[in-house]
Design brief:
34% of the residues lie in helices and 14% in strands. The chain has helices at 27-37, 46-59, 70-81, 98-105, 124-127, 150-158, 213-223, 261-271, 274-292, 324-333, 349-352, 362-370, 382-396, and strands at 7-8, 14-15, 63-67, 88-91, 109-112, 135-139, 163-167, 175-176, 179-180, 189-193, 206-210, 227-228, 249-250, 298-299, 307-308, 314-318, 371-374. The protein has a 7-stranded mixed sheet, sandwiched between helices. A 3-stranded antiparallel sheet has the order 9-8-15, with no helix packed on it. Helix 6 links the parallel strand 6 and strand 7 (163-167). Helix 1 (27-37) packs antiparallel against helix 8 (261-271), helix 2 runs parallel beside helix 8 (261-271) and helix 3 crosses helix 4 (98-105). The chain is globular and about 80 Å long. The chain starts with 6 loop residues before the first strand and ends with a helix. The structure holds pyridoxal-5'-phosphate. Residues 69-71, 95-96, 98-99, 141, 167, 169-170, 193, 195, 206 line the site of pyridoxal-5'-phosphate (PLP).
Length: 400
């Protein structure tokens, strides 16, 4: 994350700008990386499997495949689902573009379902009307760390043979009806991202979690060029010149989406601290709810009884969209690195050029016009939280 330069605060003091998100890397994390860098395996060594096992132990999933990014995880999960040219993938417009781009990577068509205005999550009730004979995949995105209504979505999808891939890039540590994000109790696969702004980091990195052996075996091969060495799976087995310990074969088109051992060592160290990271985020969210909930001009995020959020983001929505930009600029000039999540994916020029038009998802567009994400990360100090609250409150008290 970029740390912006200091700004002049009260009395001309230079204050460090508070970013909206920031990774937590401590000496033990650095040690963990250093240890691997001095070992025999920089990549494709034991740390990848160790990290995958730690992810399974934490989430409750049976299998994990660690890859080079959350985007790579989405790509191979989509490919493993069997989606092909002309098929459709339903997702939310309030997400990072990668959630929809995975359809385009497979020459499939993204279809956008509108959201719930108070959570920013895909509205499960709106999905059914968008399902066609071509719908192969649904990608619910747990926006900000609050879980989508997965039981409803999975029931609707599995009845029709549609594959559900949860985008849990925001939701490591969250739970749906007491079942951890990544457990895949109400989905076929779940993807995670370990970008530095997310709950834990490996620099760049991601993972696909699943309980299906079939998906797991496909994902392993997709990560590594579609290659297998597994004797039982070889197509050309027992035919000279193919048999022998040297032999491996490529059976379909895969990629190099491998992650390194030193990244996974960082991931293991980070994952060991996930509960404390998430607890800190929850405490910050409670403070924001209590303090910002008093302000007339904004709405705070709704909480659903089925979801225990891991608070990747804390977002406010201004009641009057006409002042959003002014508040955003006021935050920045006061040393607070706010951000807006997200421009509805289909309004990006690339998507517009494909024929997507404004007005497609009115609630998502309205949400985008009101949303501001304010600082939320485990190392945020009490004094910084108070500063954020004061700057937002003063704006509405017209003290600015
Ligand atoms: C970060 C993110 C991704 C992509 O993850 P990368 O690791 O950056 O490739 C996908 N979906 C969502 C919702 C994200 O926030």
């Amino acid at each position: 994350m970029a740390y912006a330069a200091g700004v002049k605060g009260d009395g001309g003091l230079i204050m460090k700008k508070i970013p909206y998100g920031y990774h937590s890397i401590r000496s033990e994390d650095i040690e963990a990386v250093r240890d691997v860098l001095g070992s025999d395996f920089i990549t494709q060594g034991p740390k990848v499997a160790e990290f995958e096992k730690a992810l399974c132990d934490y989430t409750g999933a049976k299998y994990a495949v660690a890859v080079s990014s959350g985007t790579a995880a989405l790509h191979i999960a989509a490919l493993a689902s069997g989606i092909v040219r002309g098929d459709e993938l339903i997702t939310s417009p309030i997400t990072f573009a990668a959630s929809a781009n995975c359809a385009l990577y497979c020459q499939a068509r993204p279809v956008f379902a509108d959201i719930e205005e108070d959570t920013g999550n895909i509205d499960a009730g709106g999905i059914e009307g968008l399902i066609t004979a071509k719908t192969k995949v649904i990608v619910p995105v747990h926006f900000s760390g609050q879980m989508c209504d997965m039981e409803k979505i999975y029931e609707m999808a599995s009845r029709r043979g549609i594959v559900v891939i949860e985008d849990a890039a925001h939701a490591l540590g969250a739970a749906y009806k007491k079942s951890k994000a990544g457990a895949c109790k109400y989905s076929d696969m779940t993807i995670l991202s370990f970008h530095p702004v997310k709950h834990i980091t490996t620099g760049e990195g991601g993972a696909v979690l699943t309980n299906s052996k079939n998906f797991y075996e496909k994902l392993l091969m997709l990560r590594n060029h579609g290659i297998t060495k597994d004797e039982g799976k070889l197509i050309n087995k027992e035919k000279e010149p193919f048999c022998g310990a040297w032999y491996y074969e490529m059976q379909f088109l895969g990629f190099n989406y491998r992650i390194t051992d030193f990244q996974c060592s960082l991931g293991i160290s980070q994952l060991g601290k996930i509960d404390s990271f998430v607890n800190k985020r929850r405490a910050i969210a409670d403070t924001y709810d209590r303090e910002l909930g008093k302000i007339e001009g904004i709405d705070i995020p709704a909480r659903r009884p089925y979801s225990d959020s891991s608070w990747h983001l804390y977002f406010i929505r201004v009641k009057n969209p006409g002042i959003r930009k002014k508040l955003f600029e006021h935050l920045h000039s006061s040393g607070i690195g706010a951000q807006v999540h997200y421009l509805p994916v289909y309004l990006h020029p690339y998507y517009s050029a494909m024929g997507f038009k404004k007005g497609l998802c009115p609630k998502a567009e309205d949400f985008y016009g009101r949303e501001i994400s304010i600082p939320m990360y485990p190392a945020l100090k009490g004094s910084e939280i108070r500063r954020v609250v004061k700057v937002v409150s003063d704006f509405f008290k017209k003290k600015i």
